[in-house]
Model the fold of this input.
Amino acid sequence: MVSWKENLGNKIEGKASRLTEIDGLDVPSFFVITSDEIGEMFGSSDPEQVLDASFSPEMRERVKKAYDEVGIGSEVRNAPDRAKNLVEGQRNGQPVSIRVSDGEKEESDYRLNVTSSNLFDAIREVVASYFSHSSGNPSLMVQKMVEPGFSGTLEMKENDAVIEFVEGLGKSLEEGITKPHVIHLRDSSIEHAIESDQQTVITYNSVTGEDQRSIEEDTELPFSKMEVQDLVRTARSEGYSLKFVYKRGSFHVVDAYESENSQQSINVSKQGIRVSKGMIQGRVGGSVKMADETLPPSEYDEALISRSGGHTSRDAFKARKEGKPAIFRFTETISEGERVNIGEEGVKINKQTESESKNRNQTVLPGQEELESKTSSNDSEEANIDIDVTGTSVARINLDSRENLSLDSSDDRYIDSFQQVFEFDEDEAILDARDLPAEALEQAVRYITAGQKVILVDDPEKRVLYAVVESGFDEVRCSETHIESVSRAVAEAERKFILDKLRNL
Done:
């Protein structure tokens, strides 16, 4: 037998179990197909076999009977057949959602707006998705759909909370294809209320049976301040973060979950949302990926900055899981090729490291106009030129560079001898120069022609750093002890390089 929401007890874990504990908010009716029943239905964990599986008449009847009753209340469901049949006839074709109740957050596919015509196909697809990454039989939630005006997520932390929501179905938020509205609360007070000027809205077309997408301008915040605060207070008393749909002034909870790292605050600003912490440092288009929509960590090298998405988007969850720093819903302007330096948990770009030197073979150089003006009026002012040029960024490195860079002796990028320098033929180079003598290092630096170049140093001679700048190295890494002196020396080398180029021009 399938199990109804009000009769689950301790038989089911995950989403379904948590939703039974929600008392202060509306939870649409649902039933659960247990893991034992899933095993009985399919008898295999092979996704392809699951998609081709047929169901016994008895199992079909059980599931179809529960589906026919999901749109009515428990009182009517337990009423005499005559009364129940009357209500069922009025609710025929109730759309439902089908989701895995257990397993890790956001790993399995789900289906929305499922009706009797595609009920069993949707069950097959969700179960096959689960088996593609997990073992053991899942339990499935089949829940009454509430057609949403808005859909969103309330992420609870110990001292703050963030609500992210979109017009229409919540798919656009989960998939990271739009900028959500955001309300950030510290304790019980609203700290930020950020409206999106444009959203990709996903709605269900009941005629075609397909999702349809549209662009909506200037969508408005649907909640009052009091509604938001009441929702947060209730959620905090329930002890869970929530996924919800909002329709005609009411919140309907469709998922309850425990937040990751509940003691860690969420960094929200008008510039963006820090969805995964860690330093973001490098060239946009290189180690730092810039995208209009969110991406899974497998599709970028070190860090991601996305103009869409939010803290609760699926790719944000994956970034946190894999430890890759990311900022979503970013609003500032960054161009391909520019360098960024953003703190461990921050969002705001460090303007001193935002600009990158343009291709050094081009006629126009960074700061050229200002330098030309100064040098033409008075060449003696060379030593006093004050301009921030950061084509070569400077960052700290742990004493154990291999551990810090996730390197080992077999990594083709890693160079720590002159012999390796002259044998090197890769697109990315990491030159560990800390144990190499300066006399030969200057020439070795100029010899490396990789597209991406990083050098590890202690306290190098200025002529070595000039060679680093001249050769177009992207980054200099050094210990915390030397970072200030190396930063000054790199800036000086860059100014000297520009002046030398201008004289040649």
